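Next up, a chain.

===
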Amino acid sequence: MKERDTNAEAEEWLELSLEQACGKPIVYGIVQAGPNCPGGVPYIRSTDVGQPLDAASLLRTTPEIAEKYRRSTVSAGDIVFSLRGNIGEMSIVPAELEGANLTQGTARISSSSVVLGEFLFYALQTEAVQRSLYSVAKGSALQEVTLNDLRLISVLIPQSRILQRYIAEALGNWDRAIQLLESSIKQRARLRWGFMQKLLTGKRRPQALGAKWSTITLAEFFEEFSEPNRDRRVQLPLSCSKLYGVIPQAERFEKRMASADLSRYQVVRRNNLVYDPMLLWDASIGFVETVDEGVISPAYNCFRFKGDAMERSWFRYLFQTHYMKHQYKVISQGTNTRRKKAPAGAFLGITIEMPTDAREIKQVVAFLEKADREIALLKKLLAAYRQQKKGLMQQLLTGKPCVHAPLTSRAAG
């Protein structure tokens, strides 16, 4: 145990090993939990932590197996720590999971007379602790930290439990603000998704616009083309995926995936449509929107758009709908479930319903773009909240002499 150097006015901080700080042995849980046992004892896996624990979503084991591992039973307020995969992710055990158990991939960390569990939860999230964890991690594909290494990790703890509580409450307030913002983003994303499905299929329409919709094929707005990069003039390889759309390969992969010779690649330009014929069933499709010009794999299908900017925006949203995702699967051919090929001709033959009144297209696109902007702004605010919390943790959890509990907190303690 080391005592930190402080000045006369500073709170005293101790540097302890995690084993010294805990009130119970740091242990992992059940090695083989067996098949899920509805109504049995819930157990917490490494994939469950890093977020509020939800009793309803946890797998369960038999009381007999849980009894064999009663040493790793958790209590409300305990910290469940991931030992493998998502190393360092943690969750606090809620009251409804009192008596639950763990797996071999998670460890129980308990509070003691020395440290409050709420404070320890944040102390383990500091950059110094996280760096220490990854420095002792073993494995390549699936990294893990041993219990012995975890027990030896050093943490900084103020001797005053009043200060511990003050710091934990301050950071807890930031966490609650972040969680509320995350919840708001998810709710808005769900609403946006639901409106998109209805507005782009005619199930819900803007008021006062009663014009009929017409049935067309994609061939009326798209034409296939291929422009090989024979002179090697364009040297920016692009990639297409359902998550990122069409972006430079360097932004998606850590290393260059394209071959050194790009002469066989196809030149594509802003507003062209691209899809991977082997992965269209998984919605790997998108417009070129982030660059003016690039090259795409010769295996991809490329199309020019024949409509205006507003209609292109309509199709950008349409291609995300359940209806279109179903069509992608219908036209994909092959026996291998994950490698079915979608021919360009079949894609152009897909039939859709579309408004004949340009005003309706404009209103729908404007509504969805506004929803996207609002979600983007909330995500930007969320990133700022997380950054501010990170800075606050750096200030409050490093044992700096300037950190004191407010007088009101001292009096309350």
Q: What stands out?
A: Residues 5-9, 407-413 have pLDDT under 50 and may be disordered. Residues 163-189+358-413 form one domain. DSSP finds twelve helices and 20 strands in the chain.
